[in-house]
């Protein structure tokens, strides 16, 4: 375990009658890249604003390097924020924007010149110091905003959907840039996004938020491969959620459903014999073959085939009317809409999860 740089302890926050954060706790290590991932309204930005000192919690504490900073104003915290709109000063040059925080901290002229040059090199914008923000592309403006934020050497950098305004190709490019910068600087990044792909690509850990609480905190691999709840399985990646009665319990269970029976695996969530269990199966783990080949599995009919983003998406309807989604690389496959199929998967790929009931926030 590394050094804890930030701790949130039992933080709660309400706006009027609306509870936005409900006793959340989180420990973040020095140099970690952690992402708060969740749908709009789940409490991500409020959490970030409380860390920054822009909001105060109703209850709980914020500790920075072991020091209680809960009631400190933003300027008394070694924390900086990069917002989605970059908030560059339009009347200042790139160099002046980067120098702004350094001037406030009373750095000498020589120190400022040296630091601005270092920052421009870091974000690969050497020679841009005399340009105005209006002359830059979205990606370049975003790099300047990051350079300005890290110039004052904060211990923690907060990033609130910083890539939200960029087009997809530039967004992906900037994901790698940000990760490179973070590793190079060794600064703790706390990143907000509702984009699961972004979170999976960039983070050391992901905290999935829902209704003002952390639904699950773990590495991208843990969140994706072993979700704890049906909500996490559904929100991160594309998972099929099936419910049934446990016929045989243990590490591997046998589940009876109206569409047939199948085996699933208990990683962190146990299942009891005779009780209802909830199982998540990723779309890429769903296999199917023509029914006449009589493999054991669930009976289904292909209802739809669509192609997007390099993946073929196949919607299959089970005999009980529930639909499953299977995904494949490629443009098409021989199976036709309306064709009878047998659907199956490896038991280890069907994961028992806590039933969050409502699949959407």
Question: Which structural traits does this protein have?
Answer:
6-stranded mixed β-sheet, 5-stranded antiparallel β-sheet, 361 residues, alpha+beta, Rossmann fold, OB fold (Dihydrolipoamide Acetyltransferase, E2P)
Report on the structure:
By secondary structure, the protein is α+β, with helices and mostly antiparallel strands. The protein has two domains: 4-225, Rossmann fold (3-Layer(aba) Sandwich), CATH 3.40.50.300; 230-353, RNA polymerase II/Efflux pump adaptor protein, barrel-sandwich hybrid domain (OB fold (Dihydrolipoamide Acetyltransferase, E2P), Beta Barrel). The chain is built from eight helices and 20 strands. The chain has helices spanning 44-52, 94-104, 109-122, 138-151, 168-185, 196-202, 220-225, 230-235; strands spanning 4-15, 18-29, 33-37, 59-64, 67-68, 79-82, 156-160, 188-193, 205-210, 213-218, 239-248, 252-257, 260-265, 276-282, 287-290, 298-308, 311-318, 323-329, 340-344, 350-353. The chain is elongated and about 80 Å long.
Helix content: 10-25%
Structural class: alpha+beta
- Parts with pLDDT < 50 across at least 5 consecutive residues: none
Order of helices and strands: EEEHEEEHHHEHEHEEHHEEEEEEEEEE
CATH level-4 homologous superfamily of the largest domain: P-loop containing nucleotide triphosphate hydrolases
On the 0-100 scale, what is the average pLDDT? Answer: 90
- Please provide the count of β strands: 20
- What is the C-alpha radius of gyration, as a whole number of Å? 24 Å
Report the principal-axis shape.
elongated
Tell me the CATH architecture of the largest domain. Answer: 3-Layer(aba) Sandwich
CATH names the topology of the largest domain as Rossmann fold
N- to C-terminal distance: 33 Å
Fraction in beta strands = 35-45%
Order of the strands making up the biggest sheet: 6-7-8-3-9-10
Largest sheet: 6 strands, mixed
At the first level of CATH, the class of the largest domain is: Alpha Beta
Overall tally of domains: 2
Number of helices: 8
């Amino acid at each position: 375990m590394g050094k804890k740089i930030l701790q949130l302890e039992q933080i709660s926050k309400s706006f009027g009658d609306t509870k936005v954060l409900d006793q959340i706790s989180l420990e973040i290590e020095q140099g970690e890249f952690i992402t708060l991932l969740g749908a709009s309204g789940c409490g991500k930005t409020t959490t970030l604003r409380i860390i920054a000192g822009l909001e105060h919690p109703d209850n709980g504490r914020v500790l920075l390097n072991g020091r209680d900073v809960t009631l400190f104003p933003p300027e008394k915290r070694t924390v900086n924020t990069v917002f989605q709109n970059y908030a560059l000063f339009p009347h200042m040059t790139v160099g002046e924007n980067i120098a702004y925080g350094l001037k406030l901290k009373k750095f000498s002229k020589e120190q400022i010149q040296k630091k601005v040059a270092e920052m421009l090199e870091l974000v690969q914008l050497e020679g841009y110091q005399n340009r105005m923000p209006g002359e830059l592309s979205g990606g370049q403006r975003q790099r300047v905003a990051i350079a300005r934020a890290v110039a004052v050497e904060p211990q923690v950098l907060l990033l609130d959907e910083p890539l939200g305004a960029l087009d997809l190709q530039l967004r992906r490019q900037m994901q790698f840039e940000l990760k490179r910068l973070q590793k190079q600087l060794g600064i703790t990044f706390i990143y907000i996004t509702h984009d699961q792909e972004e979170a999976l690509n960039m983070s050391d850990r992901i905290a999935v938020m829902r209704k003002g609480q952390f639904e699950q905190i773990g590495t991208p691999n843990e969140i994706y491969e072993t979700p704890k709840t049906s909500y996490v399985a559904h929100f991160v990646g594309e998972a099929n959620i099936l419910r049934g009665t446990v016929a045989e319990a243990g590490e591997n269970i046998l589940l009876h459903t109206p569409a047939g029976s199948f085996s699933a695996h208990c990683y962190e969530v146990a299942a009891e014999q005779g009780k209802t269990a909830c199982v998540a199966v990723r779309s890429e783990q769903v296999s199917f073959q023509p029914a006449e080949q009589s493999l054991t599995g669930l009976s289904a009919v292909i209802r739809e085939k669509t192609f997007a983003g390099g993946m073929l998406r196949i919607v299959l309807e089970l005999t009980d009317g529930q639909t499953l989604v299977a995904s494949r690389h490629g443009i098409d496959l021989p199976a036709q809409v309306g064709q009878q199929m047998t659907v199956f998967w490896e038991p280890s790929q069907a994961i028992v999860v806590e039933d969050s009931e409502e699949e959407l926030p």
